[in-house]
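Listing S7. Sequence submitted for prediction.
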Amino acid sequence: MIDKIKFHLDENANKAIAEGLRRRKIDVTTTVEVGLISASDEEQLLFANSQHRVIFTQDRDFLKLHYSGSEHSGIVYCIKESRSIGKVLRSLILIWEVLSPEEILGKVEYI
């Protein structure tokens, strides 16, 4: 059983978000780091799920995958350019602080 959420940031997420999470000792991977640049959304979701990671995205296609029944460890979605990097970071930290991996499993959190 994993006690804390781990994140995966898709390729559109600003690298400053990953850096901010790491400064707070939060486990995070990025699409660039794991060699998934240009991989399909399905492949991204499969990777995140295989690693028990909640994916952070600003790509609406992940919502379509969720509503079509794709299994995942959780999705955090933010409309592109609707929040500053600081607000996105604070929202992800709050999710990390208050939710367990089991509570977000298969769900979408909108920020």
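Caption to Listing S7: primary sequence and predicted structure tokens for the chain studied. The chain has a mean pLDDT of 95. Residues 6-110 form a domain with the Rossmann fold fold (CATH 3.40.50).
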